[in-house]
Write a structure and sequence with these properties.
- Strands 2-1-3-6-7 form a five-stranded parallel sheet, with helices on both faces. It has a five-stranded parallel sheet with strand order 9-10-13-8-14.
- It has helices at 19-31, 42-51, 68-78, 93-101, 114-125, 147-159, 176-185, 207-212, 229-232, 248-260, 286-291, 297-303, 320-332, 343-351, 357-371, 379-382, 388-392, 401-419, 424-431, 435-444, and strands spanning 11-15, 35-39, 56-60, 62-63, 66-67, 84-88, 106-109, 166-169, 194-198, 237-241, 262-263, 272-273, 277-282, 306-309, 340-341, 376-377.
- Strand 11 (262-263) and strand 12 (272-273) form a beta hairpin.
- The chain folds into four domains: 7-125, Rossmann fold; 140-309, 3-Layer(aba) Sandwich (Rossmann fold), CATH 3.40.50.300; 314-382, Orthogonal Bundle (Helicase, Ruva Protein, domain 3), CATH 1.10.8; 389-444, Arc Repressor Mutant, subunit A (Orthogonal Bundle), CATH 1.10.10.
- It is α/β, with parallel strands linked by helices and 449 residues long.
- It starts with 10 loop residues before the first strand and ends in a 5-residue tail after the last helix.
């Protein structure tokens, strides 16, 4: 809790028509050094909001003279810097999700857990103001004045003020993880850990223990208790990349962990509360996967409470010169060098389709810098190749058969590597070959670098 907050800012508005719950919340907040103003109706809450200043509002969803959603909307419109959390009946997750979509910071389920209440209050009081902006540059992937990037940066500032789950959609290499990190770094949990998990790289039989941990003796080889990703991210953010690759059996367990805000380690008899902000991402179309029964609709609904779409680099061509120089400066910083891109090189980059987006641009610049002989990087140093799609369009008969097949194989492998963030084990699984076979093909095609 920041020292700079004045005493009047450390007051919480509690709105609930149950005397016992109001008293419980009042006592719990007092133990945290906070003062509470209590309201038993929507009208009383409006009167208090008009005369006092609060650091947080806790409201029940059902009030004698209206709905908690009415208060959420009122605060979102007239008290934009005031975080509001809703208290919902057990099992009423639809109400909680609707409140989060309307601007609520977080929710608590009845019966209220004091541990979860304290975690929520700590996060809410550590929120930056709406006037705060994203760090300068917004991360390498978000550099530039392209309208799509400006919109993303503005959206990140808004998302950082919530504790609701965020789903980031975008092509491979478009900067989804960097956007997730920026949401974390500009939000209430910035002092906590950021744990990134590539869901497509975990063997199916290990997913549950990797996510939730296990206790000693849970299975052969479990010689000590071990925490999972949920425990490691406690107090911070858990980023699930390529969440569409999760097996259906794990999707059920992830859904429950989100709804109950608790997990059970493999082999444990009891559950433990979790305190995380969940951000997920994928290059796949999850809505289509839901229609094809390959992804649970209820889980998609829980993950996609707030949505962020990352534009492809092709949609931000006007930002490529600034982005490329920013990336190049960072790549050369360790050497104290200051390489520059010639106009011919910049023109070539702006004309290139970049199927691998920002990640491909970064890899291309790293190679060009390593191979360049002076501080000027020209078009020839970039070594731009035809896009994978163009390579595949070459018709049989236009090249010798082996060259034609090699070109198609190279395009397929490069595409799989981009989609799996260059995780070779996951790429082999995506291609339907063994890891050993993929390693051989990489070596034969000269792709090991």
């Amino acid at each position: 809790m920041e020292r700079r907050r004045s005493e009047r800012e450390l007051k919480v508005l509690v709105v609930d028509d149950e005397d016992d719950l109001r008293e419980l919340l009042d006592m719990s907040l007092a133990r945290m050094g906070l003062r509470a103003s209590l309201a038993g109706s929507l009208e009383q809450a409006r009167e208090l909001l008009a005369t006092e200043r609060f650091a947080l509002c806790l409201t029940d969803m059902r009030l004698p003279d209206g709905e908690g959603m009415d208060l959420v909307r009122l605060i979102a419109e007239h008290h934009r810097d005031l975080p509001v959390a809703v208290i919902t009946a057990y099992g009423s997750m639809d109400n909680a999700v609707a409140a989060l979509k309307s601007g609520a910071f977080d929710y608590l389920a009845k019966p209220v857990s004091i541990e979860q209440l304290r975690a929520l209050v700590r996060s809410a009081l550590d929120l930056p103001t709406r006037s705060a902006s994203a760090p300068a540059g917004g991360g390498d992937a978000l550099v530039g004045d392209a309208p799509a990037l400006v919109q993303v940066r503005d959206m990140i500032v808004k998302l950082a003020r919530s504790s609701a789950p965020v789903h980031i959609q975008g092509e491979s290499g478009s900067g989804k993880e960097r956007a997730a990190r920026l949401i974390h770094e500009t939000g209430a949990r910035r002092a906590g850990p950021f744990v990134a998990v590539n869901c497509g790289a975990i063997p199916e039989n290990l997913v549950e223990s990797e996510f939730f941990g296990y206790v000693k003796g849970a299975f052969t080889g479990a010689d000590a208790d071990r925490e999972g990703h949920f425990q490691a991210a406690s107090g911070g953010t858990l980023f699930l990349d390529e969440v569409g690759d999760l097996p259906l059996s794990m999707q059920v367990k992830l859904l429950r962990a989100i709804q109950e805000k608790s997990v059970r380690r493999v082999g444990a008899r009891t559950e433990e509360a979790t305190d995380i902000r969940l951000i997920s991402a994928t290059h796949r179309n999850l809505r289509q996967m839901v229609e094809e029964a390959r992804f649970r609709q209820d889980l998609f609904y829980r993950l996609n409470v707030l949505e962020l779409r990352m534009p492809s680099l092709r949609e931000c061509r006007e930002s490529i010169p600034q982005l490329a120089q920013t990336l190049l400066d960072r790549i050369a910083a360790a050497d104290g060098a200051h390489p520059v891109l010639t106009q011919a090189a910049l023109d070539a980059l702006c004309a290139y389709p970049f199927p691998g987006n920002v990640r491909e641009l970064e890899n291309l610049l790293e190679r060009a810098y390593a191979l360049s002989s002076d501080s000027r990087i020209d078009e020839a140093d970039l070594g731009l190749l035809p896009a994978a799609d163009d390579a595949v369009e070459v018709q049989a008969g236009q090249l010798p058969l082996q060259d034609y097949l090699d070109r198609m194989e190279r395009a397929a492998i490069e595409d799989a590597l981009q989609k799996t963030r260059y995780n070779r084990t996951a790429a082999a699984r995506l291609l339907g070959v063994t890891f050993r076979s993929l390693r051989y093909r990489l070596q034969r095609l000269g792709l090991n670098d």
